[in-house]
Write a structure and sequence with these properties.
The protein has 6 helices and no strands. Helix 1 packs across helix 3 and helix 3 runs antiparallel to helix 4. The protein is mostly helical and about 130 residues long. Keywords: Membrane, Transmembrane, Transmembrane helix.
């Protein structure tokens, strides 16, 4: 039972962190509209910190995943993507004007999530030899 919860947390943390935040300004516009529609428009000024917190949660999940597959590249890609996304979106304070910065950052986050999940599907070398 302990392994079940360990595996569940390890698999859900990156999805909740990197997957729950919109990685493009269109997603932020849509989520801001949705928040206003359901009466939570007060969250819009703190959306930056909510997004930062969700990316940090994704980083924690990727760090936990690193224990399983011992590959640092998904975490590195997530960190680089988050920095580019944050700088392009909030430092330059532009939705579309700095897309050359936040666009590759969003792409890196998506690639990091996909690569991290792919590493769990790849058989480990010791398992591949035992199957033969």
């Amino acid at each position: 039972m302990k392994n079940f919860f360990k595996n569940l947390v390890t698999k859900l943390a990156p999805i909740l962190g990197a997957g729950a935040i919109g990685v493009c300004p269109l997603c932020w516009i849509g989520s801001a509209s949705l928040l206003t529609y359901v009466g939570l428009g007060a969250l819009i000024p703190v959306w930056r910190w909510i997004g930062f917190g969700l990316i940090a949660l994704g980083g924690i999940g990727f760090a936990l995943d690193h224990r399983s597959h011992r590959n640092p590249y998904p975490l590195v890609l997530l960190i680089l993507g988050a920095i580019l996304l944050y700088v392009g979106r909030y430092v330059f304070a532009s939705t579309w004007g700095a897309w050359q910065i936040w666009g590759p950052g969003a792409a890196l986050i998506i690639v990091a999530v996909a690569y991290n999940k792919w590493l769990f599907r790849k058989p480990r070398p010791e398992q591949a030899h035992s199957l033969s």
